[in-house]
Design goal:
- The protein is of the alpha/beta class and about 300 residues long.
- The protein is built from 12 helices and 8 strands.
- An 8-stranded parallel β-sheet has the order 7-6-5-4-3-2-1-8.
- Helix 2 (about 25-40) packs antiparallel against helix 11 (about 270-280).
- The chain starts with 6 loop residues before the first strand and ends in a 5-residue tail after the last helix.
């Protein structure tokens, strides 16, 4: 049975902008988040407290949060890959953090320069510190349906790591098809295996649309009990450590599909489409959302 409502986690401001080579001004990032909130999105991944050496686009993370301190009714999360990033996030007033691991050893080495086991060890002090401060922690798991380096990923590895992240203290784990390799039945079977071990109320879906399968994959999984979906306005995003990884599934397209299924999201589609067009113009590109492309421009 499909859920009556779906919570959309908007990842555009962080996952969507992190790979932009040209500097995106802090004011543009802040305005994007405000417009997304105005469109009805209540869970937004705002920025990332990673080393500016590795991700220069996120070097203004403290400023972004500072300029959004008055935003109410919206949960802003920030990525914290290590204890130093967590401490910087706390100093900036973050109210939710996220950690990320990979289901592939090679991808883990390429992405965060350590093994999967080492990455889990790094999370421990973050989770302990967050628990002490009553800060919720979200977990991300990459390459659950395939790796650009190792190829196939064993579903049991995904199940084990999802359980481990929940055991360590993540309230939710987002399963990422980082290179958009999944197909509907493969995605569904993976979620079914995860469901044998943990409650799907603690699982989110994070599907990239590299091969045009993201919406079909989401549809195939929604009636299993998943009710949280990650998406990126205008399909922004990709991954610097995954060859051929294009953007996340576009939030506009997800909302359109869910509206058509009678599933509530609380998001105003027309406002969201306009927000996608605004950020796309700022980045000098065409919106990747099919719904946006099919909708007439409002003059």
């Amino acid at each position: 049975m499909f859920p009556q409502s779906v919570r959309i986690v908007e990842v555009g401001p962080r996952d969507g902008l992190q790979n932009e080579t040209a500097w995106v001004p802090t004011e543009t990032k802040v305005e994007l988040i405000r417009k997304l909130a105005q469109a009805g999105l209540t869970s937004i991944e705002a920025t990332s407290f990673v080393s500016p050496k590795w991700v220069p686009q996120m070097r203004d993370a403290p400023l972004v949060l500072e300029r959004l301190h008055d935003l109410v009714g919206v949960r802003l999360s920030v990525l914290t890959p290590n204890l130093q990033g967590f401490e910087r996030a706390m100093a900036a007033g973050a109210e939710e953090v996220a950690v990320f691991a990979a289901a592939s050893e090679t991808f883990s080495q390429k992405n965060i320069n350590c093994s999967i086991a080492e990455s889990l060890e790094r999370f421990q002090p973050i989770l302990e510190g967050a628990h002490a401060l009553e800060i919720p922690v979200r977990g991300y798991l990459s390459c659950v349906l395939g790796c650009p380096y190792d190829g196939e990923v064993e579903p049991q590895a995904v199940v084990h790591l999802t359980k481990e992240l929940i055991h360590q203290g993540c309230y939710e784990v987002s399963l990422g098809d980082t290179i958009g390799r999944g197909t509907p039945l493969k995605a569904r079977r993976l979620v079914e295996q995860v469901a044998q071990e943990i409650s799907l109320e603690q699982v989110a879906l994070h599907f990239h649309d590299t091969r045009g399968q993201a919406l079909a994959n989401l549809y195939a999984c929604l009636d299993l009990g998943v009710s949280v979906v990650d998406a990126s306005v205008s399909g922004l995003g990709g991954c610097p450590y995954a060859r051929g990884a294009s953007g996340n599934v576009a939030t506009e397209d997800v909302v359109y599909m869910l509206n058509g299924m009678g599933i509530r999201t609380g998001v105003q589609l027309e406002s969201l489409i306009e927000t996608g067009r605004v950020i796309s113009r700022a980045l000098d590109r065409t919106p990747q959302s099919r719904v946006s492309q099919a909708s007439p421009e409002v003059q």
